[in-house]
Amino acid sequence: MDRRQFLAASSIGLTAAAAGCLGSPLSSENPEPGSEADPGAESDMTAQDGEITVSASGEVETEPDQAVIDVGVEASGESAAAVTEELSTGAAELRTTFDDLGIPEENIEDGRYRVHEAHGRTATGYEGVHSFEVTVTDVDRVGEIIDAVTEAGADDVGHVRFTLREETRSELRNDAIDDALANADEEASHIADNRGVELEGTTAVSTGDVRVHPVHLEAEAMTSADAASGGAPQTEIGTEPVRVSASVTVTYAFAP
């Protein structure tokens, strides 16, 4: 079930000219050239061209519909060749498991691959790792996949990134921008009411960062009811909603 919650967070700012007109922020008189009130720059707030600028943010959230699982095999041995061969065998086992699970080839990417001398003062020989990034479009299968690759010999398992498919990102990106614009409109109306002026329309709009905030988790093996009666432990993954945020800056014209 897709649940979305709109969260508001906004900050408001009058334009520089509005901040500078402390004595009479809604004055319809232009300062005389050369006077202290005329710094030589264009005024953003005059009787003919009054403006209010608002910066606001918006945010939406929904349940993840995609997960990326980091899994891999590790090896150690007396020679680099021995470690390389062990990694090759382990990676082949994982690829067979991916195929058995019905994971498309395009959803599997090579991650880290490294063979190096063992670290540590007393360490000898070589160590290596070969990992994969597996993209899953059914997030309910994450625990099943972790269990399967672990049984197949993966010993570098655990990090899971819950995120959104591209089409979902595009939809929620627009929703987040809409929410930010609605917050900007609300704040601008409040400022106009407070200052006793009337908004006449929008003169400029810009968008800032539009970001997807994935949920990062470590897989945790938990004992199920079957495990309590002697069955194998099952990996259970719980997650939080994925957030999409956007920010906008809107300039509104007003009449004094």
Describe this structure in words.
By secondary structure, the chain is α+β, with helices and mostly antiparallel strands. The protein folds into two domains: 7-63 and 169-211 and 244-255, Translation Initiation Factor IF3, CATH 3.30.110; 66-163, Alpha-Beta Plaits (2-Layer Sandwich), CATH 3.30.70.2970. Helices cover 27% and strands 39% of the residues. The protein has five helices and eleven strands. The chain has helices spanning 16-20, 80-100, 142-151, 166-195, 225-228; strands spanning 7-12, 50-62, 66-77, 108-117, 126-136, 156-163, 198-213, 215-218, 220-222, 234-236, 242-255. The strands form three sheets. The chain has a five-stranded antiparallel β-sheet. The chain has a four-stranded antiparallel β-sheet with strand order 1-2-11-7, with helices on one face. Strand 4 (108-117) and strand 5 form a beta hairpin. The protein is elongated, with a radius of gyration of 29 Å. The two termini are 49 Å apart. Mean pLDDT is 80; it is low at 1-48 and 221-231.
User: Could you describe the largest sheet, including whether it forms a barrel?
Assistant: 5 strands, antiparallel
Q: How many β-strands, per DSSP? A: 11
Helix vs. strand class: alpha+beta
Write down the CATH class of the largest domain: Alpha Beta
Strand content: 35-45%
